[in-house]
Amino acid sequence: MANRGDRADAAGRPSGSTRAVDAAHALDDDDDIAADEAAALTVSVDLPAPVRVAPEEELALSIPDEPISAGQLGLVDTSTMSIEFVGTDLEGSESIDDVDDPGVLDVVPLPASDERQSRRDRMRGEVSKSPESANMLTADRLIDNRKRRRPAPEGSWPAFVYAVTLHLVNLGDSPKVRARKEIDARIDKQFEGGTRFVPVLTRKGGVGKTTITALLGMALSDVREDRIIAIDANPDRGTLSERVNKQTRSTVRDIVTQAPSITSFNDFSTMVSRDETRLDILASDTDPMLSEAFDENDYNVVADLAARFYSIALTDCGTGIVHSVMRATLQRADSLVIVSGGSVDEARLASETLTWLEANGYAKLVRNAVVAINTATQGTSLVKLDEIESHFRSRVREIVRIPYDPQLAAGSVIDYKGLRDLTKDAARRLAAIVMDGLPARRSD
């Protein structure tokens, strides 16, 4: 007999077991709805990027942040030393003991490992415990200075010994060569802060002022790598351009009239004549009427353009020291070269030139001036040159004698390489002395 509970009633309602199954399905539906609601409430959070860990080779080259004490370096025995800190009395008698929290000085010990080596240790041949980077292969670490070969010596005897010993014995340069290189180093003095102007002047004509200007410029250009120019600012028809092979007919007047169109060194170089030593010479006007018109303003135009392209500018001045060109020349001067002959009147006029300069506010230039005594003038053999030198030494910085040379006495084109050795040595010494007196740095 079937169970009464297993039969459906007459109205068609399910039995008890059927209702239990329906209830289970209802619970499953509720779970699905809850899962959907939980998924809808999910929040995404971006985690921070992982911290970069430096490799060992980078740590080997870094500087540790921990301070190093003298005791840890083994320089001081910290076991028997104590340090007492005393506060500064800022307000009344308050000391560091009265401060509520004076702080504690903690010394952090060094890392126990010896992996961080200095480059000095590695230069001694010690092997690093960590891989080295390419930056550690420096020249001072790898090159053995003991195996560097000195340059071949100059001079007859040192060169002979060097060749006979198959380059094993190097006596160095001879004294004469060392003196020459010392002069070269003085001539090749480096400057900062604009062009250096050096006027060459005297109150008397015919003492070799133009020749001294050309010699000085050639000696400078033969050694230095920068540009040197000699400007003929003689308002009475100068002859400086005749000391070199003329390559142009342009003069200072052309520079003045064409100044707005001169924008590069190539434009300027077409108006100068260049010597074999690379000395550039700017000629003066050959027409006396135009020469007299060359005044202070014209010289400033020429000097401003020369200052754009040249490191040193020599100025061959006229004999008229009261001319306006002379005023503009002296205002730009960094040093002076006063030319004197070997006769009594030539030496006296050169000294009077110094007196005029001192009386007109150029005493500083006089003290820094150099006197070049041209011994090729007439009457030199009759005077005591030592007395002339002693007189000028009391007034100027240095004196140089320019010896007689047949090529200079001709008054024509100067072949610098063909001059006598004594003449070239005097010109080089004059150039070195002039460079010594020029400021290496200048703000303007």
Automatic annotation (TrEMBL):
Official protein name in the record: MinD-like ATPase involved in chromosome partitioning or flagellar assembly
Biased composition (Basic and acidic residues): 1-10, 113-129
Keyword Amino-acid biosynthesis: no
Recorded GO CC terms: cytoplasmic side of plasma membrane; cytosol
Region ranges (Disordered): 1-21, 93-132
Presence of the UniProt keyword Magnesium in the record: no
Pfam families membership: CbiA
